[in-house]
């Protein structure tokens, strides 16, 4: 009779690289003749022995984030039958793991075909390459048995802010990479998320030649796992088009983006409605034509606001303003001309302020908190719109053009009013 004990111990050792050596893990086995089996473990040897006879018969899951030690009292280093107490979001110590789950689209409760499985693994590699190009560290790459997983080490508090950040990261990746065959699971952000335990067999539906049961396994694990910084998560989350609300009476003029794309001879390969906007994926990058992998995009929000960019590092500084600078060299002058008052030809300090602020990238989280990402000494810093740090950055930019050092409250209010136009 085959034993999986040694393989399970190796897997658990790799998982502890993400969660911490002393972390507590809940094991959950669903739909057995004795209901749900659950146990809380801080001893990997006992864990491996406890689950060995269940592998290949039932789906076995583990909590990806560390569970509070007090939960050991429910079922310490043993499996309990007909379990009533399992891990809730409030039972998680902190958010240590971001799991990106790629699953092939197919009817529920059946295993994937080889073709479906391979497409999901390919998409997993595609997202991994993209995130690494954005400066993210190398993750654990895994095969769920039906699709692919990327496991990144994070360090966030288990609170609403951390949860919302992960939620928007997944939404952004879904909007960028999901297609008719493979999709990013947008629900893996919750703290108490469980995942198929690698080294066990995924038993979804009947085990057939066309749709076989497969081993869930770790495909690649770096020797040392680095932690993703919060600003790196925010940079990806900002790619998700959230409705951008203007403050006060400011309202953007809605441009006919499809006509604009046609006029500028920009070919679109895919149009996708997401959130509160529409993404137009461009055939070629307008900043660097050698980028032909669908990395360049334009987003128009339902309120008329427009954003643009390219996922390659070499284009990280590009945005809607720089795109218009390239394709419409006179657009800024035309805008200023339309704002002249009584024939005044001199550029106003208000226009200079808005122009200075356009160098930042603005986004909003699901709690409707406004943020700005700005370039500082060769890297990006993310600040809240009302923060003193953002005001200081804007003051420096304003001073460099006007020699006016003081940015009063009225000017800063104007900046906040126009930043999401």
- Structural domains: how many: 3
The secondary-structure element order is HEEHEEHEEHEEEEEHHEEEEHHHEEEHH
Shape: elongated
Multimeric organization: single chain
Strand line-up in the sheet with most strands? 7-4-6-5-11
**In the CATH hierarchy, what is the architecture of the largest domain at level 2?**
2-Layer Sandwich
Overall pLDDT:
81
Q: Tell me about the biggest sheet?
A: 5 strands, antiparallel
Rg calculated over all Cα atoms: 25 Å
Report on this structure.
The protein is of the alpha+beta class. The chain contains eleven helices and 18 strands. It has helices at about 5-20, 45-50, 115-135, 160-175, 230-235, 255-265, 320-325, 330-340, 350-355, 390-400, 410-420; strands at about 25-30, 35-40, 60-65, 95-105, 140-145, 150-155, 180-185, 195, 200, 215, 215-220, 270-275, 275-280, 295-300, 305-310, 360-365, 370-375, 380-385. α1 packs across α2 (about 45-50) and α9 crosses α10.
